[in-house]
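Progress against Task 2.4 (sequence-to-structure conversion) is shown through the following example record, which the project officer requested during the mid-term review.
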Amino acid sequence: MNNIILKSLTAENFASFADKIVFSTIIDSGKKDNLTNTFEFSDCYFNKVSFLYGANGSGKTFFCKIIREIQRILNFSPLTVVNDSQILSLPQFKGISDPVKAFAFDMSYSQKPTTFSLDIIINKITYHYEFSIKGKEVAYELLTKKYKRTEKLLERTSSSYNDISLYSDLKNFENQKQVIKSEALCLPVAAIFNNPLADLVVKSINQIQVVNMTAARINPANNKDSFSDERVKKYIQILQKADPTLRKMNISYEEEEMGRQKSDSDDFENREIIAMKTTVGVETKHAVFDNGAETGDTTISFFADESLGTVKLFTALPYLYDVLENGGVLVIDEIENGLHLSLAKEIVNLFTNKYTNPKNAQLICTSHQPLLIGENTRRDQVWITDKDAYGKSALHRLS
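Structure tokens generated for the chain above:
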């Protein structure tokens, strides 16, 4: 995993965000209080934790879906090279080819493109990636990088591959760009054709984790290292705050190949797209007591017999520790859903504590719980969503 920093995120004409919203983790430079909640990198300070508050239906969940939508379009683009209905019909690809959800409550927005952009830091270099989609077709795409000066790497001005200009690290994809379809982004297609820079940026964006705590069950992490003995010990320490009888966890992890498909006949290197399914099984041992003395243990089926909140917490922990140990970004929708306030605070504290967060991982979470905000919270850590009478959501920073 790459240790990335999310600087900013924008969206326009997406879901309830009709007009452009801008989210940033860069602190307000005039505020020097509670800097323990921040970290410094390249003469700039960033918040470790950002909170997003708002009424039901104000746009909090749609904010979290911005990252998911960017990732969906990135992951769909290489599939257009294969263009195989059998692959696209697999359960894990459900909805991957859907059109972007534009603002629906004003007819004029149906004629406008949806635009996303993000700024991330990878290996001390800031990459700005931006693209616009109208319906299913790409209308614009831009990638720049900045170290000491800003350098353009990719610019696309229409859905045609003829209007794609490539520079510097992406120049070697010039002779293959004709494979790009009108509904596909150039950057992820360049990545599957082994362009190192494209691969780096796409993988870095895809490693931003988004967890929805309102879901009945969170999808299992698809990384076997997430269930190593060392990791499981950490999970048990957190889970014991919810279930103090827990003593041991036995975890089975299986990956099953669901299908594979070669790319088109023009690809002489015979690249393949492989679809995988991950299954995680859990049994837990719990203490048995006799008159207050622990006398033995009993085994239960974790997913069937534990509380829904404890199961949610367990399935979220691999994502949490992936970013804590490696650096990166974790987005959690409704962090307190199904959890006691003390457990939600425990998650937040893991990110603000420099010992449990040595790589300066970032947490962005939506919440209805005002008690997550403490006296040491900076005003620029808090964002508010609201929706007007016309169905348009806006995003404002408390500071």
